[in-house]
Design a protein that fits this description.
Layout: H1 2-18, E1 25-32, E2 45-53, E3 56-64, E4 70-77, E5 86-90, E6 100-107, H2 116-121, H3 126-139, E7 142-148, E8 156-159, E9 161-162, H4 167-189
Antiparallel strand pairs: 1-2, 1-9, 2-3, 3-6, 4-5, 4-7, 7-8
Helix pairs in contact: 1-4
């Protein structure tokens, strides 16, 4: 009985150490002119990584090759690929350059994170806006884009999609847990 308790306890501890590291939800977007509606033909490119941890959304976006300095960037929500939607979360202050990076963390529980129009569209409260945005992030119905003087409706755009763990990552996690169990068994037997 003692051996089982120790073995089970070891497994629970191993899981407790691993699970929090994977509790965040990660989304990504590849921003291209061909993704804009209508397509812009822009040579610019960008990548966005969005990490959701509780109410906090970390936004990390890099871009290069814009045909004019950026004038605005944001998350638009909530519709399928190929549909233009309203601005939900503005990226402020976004750098006024043709190539660069933007990093910030916003609190999705605050009304100041959203545009007034988005809050109204989602039912009138920050809580409903947060629920609507998260649902759209999870379903792939939100996108990020960057605007400039040459393309005031957006030069590059990318649909935001959830990043799923790679099978190799899951294999490493499983292997680590098996190794932990095997070490615990050997210590119990010794």
């Amino acid at each position: 009985m003692f051996k089982r308790i120790v073995l089970t306890g070891s497994l629970v501890i191993a899981l407790a150490l691993v699970i929090p590291a994977h509790a965040d939800t990660i989304y990504s977007a590849v921003l291209l002119g061909s993704n804009e509606v209508p397509p812009t033909g822009s040579p610019a490119t960008g990548v966005g990584v969005f990490t959701l941890s509780g109410n906090m959304l970390t936004i990390a976006e890099t871009f290069t090759g814009l045909t004019a300095p950026a004038s605005a960037a944001h998350i638009h929500c909530c519709g399928p690929v190929g549909v233009n939607e309203m601005v939900a979360v503005p990226f402020t202050p976004f750098p006024n350059v043709t190539a660069g990076a933007f990093n910030t963390t916003v609190d999705l529980s605050l009304a100041s994170t959203y545009t007034a129009g988005f809050i109204t569209q989602e039912g009138g409260t920050a809580a409903l806006a947060e629920a609507g945005l998260i649902a759209s992030l999870n379903s792939g119905d939100a996108y990020a884009n960057i605007h400039d003087a040459n393309f005031p409706n957006g030069e590059i755009r990318g649909q935001i999609t959830q990043v799923t763990p790679e099978p190799a990552s899951l294999l490493l996690l499983g292997t680590g847990l098996i190794a932990t169990v095997q070490i615990a068994r050997k210590r119990i037997r010794a």
